Structure formats: structure tokens, C-alpha cells
Amino acid sequence: KMAALGRVPPWRRGWQPVVQQLRWGSKAVTRHWKAMHFQRQKLMAVTEYIAPRPLVPPSCLPRKREPQEREDSGYIRLLQRQVEEIFRDNRMVAVCQNNWMPQEDVAMMRFYLRKHNIEVKFVLNEIVRPVLSQSKYKNLLPLFVARNILLVSPEIKAKEMLRVLRGVPQVNLLGACIDDTILSRRGVENFAKLPSLETTQSQTVGALALLPSQTSSLLQCSPAHLTALLDRHIQQLQDGETGTAAPAQSSGDQ
Length: 254
Hints:
Blueprint: H1 2-7, H2 38-46, H3 67-89, E1 92-98, H4 103-115, E2 119-122, H5 125-133, E3 148-153, H6 158-165, E4 171-178, E5 181-184, H7 185-192, H8 197-253
Antiparallel strand pairs: 1-3, 1-4, 2-3, 4-5
Family: Belongs to the universal ribosomal protein uL10 family.
Keywords: Mitochondrion, Ribonucleoprotein, Ribosomal protein, Transit peptide
InterPro entries: Ribosomal_uL10, Ribosomal_uL10-like_sf, Ribosomal_uL10_bac_type
């Protein structure tokens, strides 16, 4: 038996080597990507879920307000209320295009306008347009496109306003609302050429008083003319009587 064991290799007799090689790592990849069968692709395409279209397109729905706009809504309402007061409490509201100019020129313009009781109001189109769209001044909306300012006055000072704006070329008059009447630039210039209200009233009173005076003179003309003719006829008769008597006396004397 010993001789037989000597002929058997060591690993067959239960002997383990000192160093063993072990395999570490992931398993071998046995599954590879495979294209889906075309019939299955057709089935998946036919059974794909399609969401129903909304009755109202999203573009037609009102835009959701952002949180910042909701926070500023109180301040915006205050500015819109001030714009409403401007159009309600002033007889003249002129809309002008405001181009850039130095602050010194702005101060000088406001000073000369304030001498004629005309105030300068800087407004934003985002504030003015919603107010005008819901009022009787909606025809002024096309004027509020770029940077605008308002020249407001409780009195009608169109002539004085144009005189001051001639020296400020950066401010262009676009239109005005005078006594709830919307006028263009040409209309404001023509309105400024009209005489004052006192002069117009005096001219109207003179024209109205002229007609009764002419009527009265026409009614008195015929009786006065008849009276003058009768007086002249009486005078001629008296002169005729004195004229016949005078020659008789003269002939007797001779």
C-alpha cells in the first residue's frame, strides 16, 4: 500500500496547495440588448395612451399672476387711483413723448410750467393703459406707447403750454384732452389760437345786442321819416304864407 501511495500524486492524496488562485469580479454578461420585435412595436404604438385635448386652448386662458405681481397689486391700485384723479380733477391733460434730457432742463421746464399752474406728471404705461381702457378716454390709448409724461392743469392753458414747449425740443406734444374733448397736436394748436373766453363772451353779447338795436332802428325809421316829412311840409306852408305877404307890402310901399 505504501508503494501504491508513493506512486499517487500529492493532489490526489488530499493535499492542498499553499497558494490558490480565486476569481473575483462580476459575472459574465449573458443578456445583451435586443431590438423589440416589429409586431410588438406596432402593438405598443397602437395601445399608447393619448391624453384628451382641452376644450379651451392654453393660449386662450388668462395668464396666472406671479406672486410678485400679487404683492405689488396694492401699490398698483394706488397709482391707478391717482391717474383717475388726474383725469377727473383737471380740465386740461396733455400727453407728451418724453425723450432723455438733463435733470437741469427738466427742472427748468417744470419751473416755467408751474408759473402757469401746469404740473408735470411722470406715469408708466402699465399703470395708465388699464385705467384708460375702462374709461371714456380710451381713444388716448394709441398715444401711450413709449415714455410719456402728462401736463395737467385745472385751467385751460394751451397757449402758455405751447409757448414753454417750444423751448424744450426733447418733449413732443402728442395730443390732449381739454374739457373732455380729445384733440390732436394740430387741434391743440388751433385751439390755442382762439380768443379767450371773456373776449368770446363779449363778442357774443355784442352780436346778440346788435340785432335788437337794428330791429329797433328799422322800426323807428319810418315814423321818424314821416315826421320829418310832415315837419318839412308844415315849414314850407308857413314859409309860403310869409312869402306872399311880404311882396304885397313891398309893392304898396312903392
